[in-house]
Amino acid sequence: MAKVTLKRIARKAGFSEATVSRVLSGRGSVYKIRPETEQAIFETARRLGYTHGHNVFKPKPLRTRTLGLVIPDLSHFFLGRLARTIVSRAAASGLSVLVCDTLEDTDTEIQQIEQLLDRDIDGLLILPVGKEWDHIARLSHRGLPVVVVDRIVPDVGCHCVGVDNYKGAFEAVEHLIESGYRRIGCIQRLPHSWINDERIRGYRDVHARHGIAVDDRLIIGDLYGQQNGYLETKRLLQMDPRPDAIFALSHLVTLGALRALREHGIAIPGQMGLIGFDDMPNAEYFDCPVTTVRQPIDEMAALAVTLLIEQIESQGAVDPVTIKLPTELIRRRSV
Fold first, then answer.
1. CATH at residue 20
2. Judgement on whether residues 24 and 83 belong to the same structural domain of the protein
3. Pick from 303, 308, 307: which is nearest to 163 by CA?
4. Are residues 158 and 132 both part of a single domain?
5. Over the stretch 144-160, which tens digit does the pLDDT of each residue have?
6. Do residues 175 and 328 touch, judged by C-beta distance below 8 A?
7. Are 110 and 135 in contact (CB under 8 A)?
8. Quick check: 15 pLDDT over 90?
9. Separation between Cα atoms, residue 196 and residue 200, nearest integer Å
10. DSSP code per residue over 110-165
11. What is the CATH number of the domain that holds 307?
12. Three-state secondary structure call for residue 326
């Protein structure tokens, strides 16, 4: 199908291209264009199948009431629940959400964003993989309403809503140190991603505060999943001396660590302390209830949707804000 141009709309509606351009860019009131003229142009544009493009905010009559959500791993409990909550919050405002799973791959992320833009979404909520940011900044510069969720990124030019990963990690490892643990293994999720780096920074800084040297060999792992937690825990157990505690940087990593420790007959917390980042469903019912760092999922989702709707309604007249929410250390019996 041929692209619907301003010239074609102008010819069908019986107005000049300049008038059509002003109306479709949402500036009709600025140029004192009559409401009935605006209505005629919008109706003609819709009838012809005009899509607004990706480089400016859309006037209300051309909105699809559809948002895009790009998320790195829907199988992850925290991310899956966050996505579900975002969809629920959006639905309460009469909005649909198209959800994409990037499988933790930046190239897939970029491709899926373009596919969502081709679907003429009104705005985008994105949880980036977090290794590259240029494509996110470009979205904001193009004028698309964007909210980055679960990451705090300086100078990206759009709203960011996330948690204080640094402080959450700092408090978790400090709890281990204050409980008498000194050789603390750290199983990462995705090295060199923003969230992972913030949590590692907290891990290192709390050691420094307590005058404990960090053994870099104790910082291992390279993926989110249970298999990562399982295999890396086995590696930690082969060290001499082995760690006396483990800090797992995601709930899936924590589950893998639990499996490995059980196979080796290691008692928690008698022989090994354990804290996981991200609370887990039913964690209090485990044989040894696991201490975790809980993130405020519902609050994060509600703020992200609210900020995106505010951007859409204001047509870009809102300065970007950064909101960093606190985590909560849920103390159970694994320390």
1. 1.10.260.40
2. no
3. 303
4. yes
5. 899 999 988 767 778 99
6. no
7. yes
8. no
9. 6
10. HHHHHHHHHTT-SEEEE---SS--HHHHHHHHTT--EEEES---TTSSSEEEEE-H
11. 3.40.50.2300
12. coil
Counting every residue written for the chain, the total comes to 335
Please say whether the beta carbons of 164 and 150 come within 8 A. Answer: no
Residue that is written with structure tokens 């809980």 in the block: 294
Burial of 134 (0-12, 13-18, 19+ CB in 10 A): exposed
Span 54-84, pLDDT tens digits: 545 667 777 889 999 999 988 888 889 999 9
The structure tokens listed for 35 are 């409401």
Name the token pair of 180: 């008498």
C-alpha angle 41/46/49, rounded to 5°? 125
d(CA 278, CA 289): 14
Say what the pTM is.
0.79
Is the confidence at residue 250, as pLDDT, over 70? yes
What token pair was written down for 143?
């004028």
Residue 102, in any domain of the structure = yes
Whether residue 10 lies inside any domain: the answer is yes
Tell me the C-alpha distance between 124 and 139, whole Å: 9
Q: Are residues 185 and 289 in the same domain?
A: yes
For 286-308, write each residue's pLDDT tens digit: 788 999 999 999 999 999 999 99
Beta bridge partners of 294: 328
Q: Are residues 245 and 191 in the same domain?
A: yes
Above 70 in pLDDT, residue 30?
A: no
Domain extent, residue 126, equals: 65-163+297-326
In a domain, 58, yes or no: no
Whose CA is closest to 172, among 276, 258, 325?
Answer: 276
> What's the total number of domains in the chain?
3
Cα of first residue to Cα of last residue in the chain, in angstroms, is 63
On whether residue 71 sits in a domain, the answer given is yes
